[in-house]
Amino acid sequence: MHTEHTAETCKKARLAVQDTLDVVGGKWKLVLLTILMHGKRRFRELSREAGITPRILSKELQEMEMNGLVSRTVCDTRPVTVEYALTPYSETLKEVLDAMEHWGQQHRRKIIGGS
């Protein structure tokens, strides 16, 4: 599919990219999505696995929940534990994450060499 490049289509493309970055941009959101693609995690597990402080993790997860990417479940345990999982909507980012993983592997080979 070929789209003609006009000032209007370029503006729409920039807005779409900006919207995407507003939702998944920053240092942590894509890392958290990648971890959660392998299954639900408790808050402390996510913090350890991602290497992120609890304060920052809490902020990131709130934003991701607000955007419909993760669900939060309070478990009936003592002490109370909270689990996070991807929502069906987050599956719409799978192609983006796969493409980023592929590009990152290529880039690593180009810059560092090896496999």
Automatic annotation (TrEMBL):
Signal peptide interval: none
Record-linked Pfam families: HxlR (PF01638)
Keywords, in A-Z order: DNA-binding, Transcription, Transcription regulation
InterPro entries assigned to the protein according to its UniProt record, in alphabetical order: ArsR-like_HTH, HTH_HxlR, WH-like_DNA-bd_sf, WH_DNA-bd_sf
Domain HTH hxlR-type: 10-112
GO terms classed as biological process: regulation of DNA-templated transcription
Keyword Metal-binding: no
Gene3D superfamilies: Winged helix-like DNA-binding domain superfamily/Winged helix DNA-binding domain (1.10.10.10)
Record bears the keyword DNA-binding: yes
Molecular-function GO terms, alphabetical: DNA binding
Protein origin, superkingdom: Bacteria
Name by which UniProt lists this protein: DNA-binding HxlR family transcriptional regulator
Organismal lineage: Bacteria, Pseudomonadati, Bacteroidota, Cytophagia, Cytophagales
